[in-house]
Amino acid sequence: MINTAPNKSTNQLACCSDCDAVISFPPLKEQQYAECPRCHNALSSTDRWSLHRCAMLALSILILMPFALNYPLLSIDLLGSKIDASVWGGIWKMATQGYPYTAFLVFICAVFMPISFALLVILLRISQLLGIKPRNLLISLTYIKPWVMFDVYLVALAVTMFKVREYATLQIDIYLIAFVFTALLTTLLFIKLNPKALWNEFYPNSHALTEIPTDNQPHFCTECQYSFTQATYDHKQRATCPRCDSLLHLSPDIKLQRTWATLIAGIIMIIPANILPMSVVYLNGAPSEDTLMSGVLSFIDMGSYFIAFVVFVASIFVPISKIIIMLYLLICVHFKLKHAIKWQMRLLHFVHFVGRWSMLDLFVLALMMSLVARGQIIDFSVGPAAFYFGIAVFLTMISTSQFDSRLIWKIYDKQ
After folding, report:
1. Which has fewest Cβ within 10 Å: 41, 75, 294, 373?
2. pLDDT digit string (tens) for 296-353?
3. Membrane-spanning residues where (predicted)?
4. CB atoms within 10 A of CB 301
């Protein structure tokens, strides 16, 4: 760890989760935040809503959720009959027509995680009122946030509109307003909810880290973002965090093994995802198979260049670039290659931000199943590549979350 600022008695010390530096900063005022001067990672912030306000927002999301998930968002007029598409309807039809595993992946990101996220916020508010220490709830909140993908589903709706209009007349139902508001409120809750501040609120620092001990470096817990001096020990005499009981000082080799294992598995899955057909459309009994790339080309043929660009970025560019970037960072760690550290951190933040958007294609498939799978003149079926693609997205997201950026900074500091 590196101390990048002189200590003062009134200042607070915190370890940076990205570069492992020990940063000194004064007490923050309203609407202020402290960031690391080395890697610009946010250390602390006062720009957040109270838990009471966030709970009200989460309650509004849960009230809107049945209308957003179960009621029709889009409709088409197919052979004189009106066919509706909803989030739950698409998942259910995908599951009952021979694609249960693909449907389960969509269910996790589009239904289970958004509902769980809102429920966790409400349960945290109840814990606050009852004076309960919700250690497990706070840990779960940190893990669930990246998997809530309502905003991605909103973009999938727009892509589906352009894809379906070549087969039938498209209509927008009024319940789409509920879905849009649910997506916007969920995004707002993401922005205004600060898990690090909640940890400090439920577990206030009785002995705040105000100076670096002379005998050893301060400890830092990556689970609850806690900087402290004295660690606790479990029954196996392993150092644990005194606030969340998570294990400290996990071996870098284990972290790298987890990152490599999930990344290699993701690479294996991405190969059939790009080769096999992603969807099959039967028009008058004649099948038309689309791979990821041919789907993009079909949008170009329709003249929908912007939609083609969005699908290409989400389905092809993002998954491939994530794999290439992670391979590059892992090679830098293993061979201790020193490159521009700021550029490497930008690449890592990029894969953290864009990884979830690769689920766009699976959401479009679920909506298409709800709209066109009728076994008449037009029939739509999910291709075998969908499952491999969904698993590849999940594995690469897990690989990115397992990678420890401090390993890059150690190379930079040594050299």
Report:
1. 294
2. 888 788 777 887 888 898 889 999 999 999 999 999 999 988 888 889 999 999 998 8
3. 54-74, 101-124, 136-162, 174-191, 260-283, 303-333, 354-373, 385-403
4. 9
Strands 226-228 and 232-233 come out as: unpaired
Q: How far apart are CA 167 and CA 163, in angstroms?
A: 8
Q: Characterize 37-64 residue by residue with b for buried, 16 or more Cβ atoms within 10 angstroms of its Cβ, and e for exposed.
A: ebbebebbeeebbebeebbebbeebeeb
Using DSSP, state whether 62 is helix, strand or coil: helix
Residue 123 vs residues 143, 224, 316: alpha-carbon distances, Å: 16, 18, 38
Write the single-letter amino acid at 384. P
- For residue 45, the surrounding DSSP H or E stretch is strand 42-45
Beta bridge partners of 44: 34
Look up residue 186 and give its amino acid. Answer: T
Token couple for 289? 């198979």
d(CA 159, CA 394): 22
Nearest to 286 by CA among 166, 396, 378, 399: 378
